[in-house]
Amino acid sequence: MQEDQNNFGPLFSILGHWILLTRSETHFLSGRWSREYAVEYLIATLGLTSAEAEQEVVTCITVPGQATAERLGLLKIFQLRLQAEAILGASFNIKEFHKRILRFGPMSIKRLIANQESWLLPFSGAGIQNHAGVTLLLFSVAVTFLMITNIL
What we know:
Blueprint: H1 2-29, H2 35-46, H3 50-62, H4 66-88, H5 94-102, H6 109-120, H7 133-148
Helix pairs in contact: 1-2, 1-3, 1-4, 1-7, 2-3, 4-6
C-alpha cells in the first residue's frame, strides 16, 4: 500500500499535465480558443515559456491529437511498469524495463502490450493479470477530484 501511495504524486503530476495539454488542444482545435489564448493558457497553467507554448500550439495544428496520444501512451507505459513490478517483484530492474520498452522503437500500444506479455509470461505463472489495482484506484480518485474542481 505504501508503494501505491508513493506513486500518487507522480501520477497526479502526469494527470495534471495531461489534462492541461489535452484541454488546450481540444478547445483550440474546436475553435473555442484562439491561437493567442491557447498560448497564454499554456504559459499561465503549465509555466511554459512563450516559445514552448507556441510550439505546443503549432504541434496541435500540424499533428492534431498528438498531446492526447502522448499522454495515453505514457499512462499505458506506466501501467505496464506497475504490472512488471508486480510480477517480477524484487527482481524488477527499471533499466531492463526501459530497455525492453524502447528496444523496437516506435510502435502501437497493442504491439507494446504484446511485447510485454511475451517478456513476462514465463514469470507470471497462470498468466498476466493487472496487479496495479490500488494505484489505478488512486489515479481514478485523482481524476474524479479534478473533475469535481472543474480542472478537467
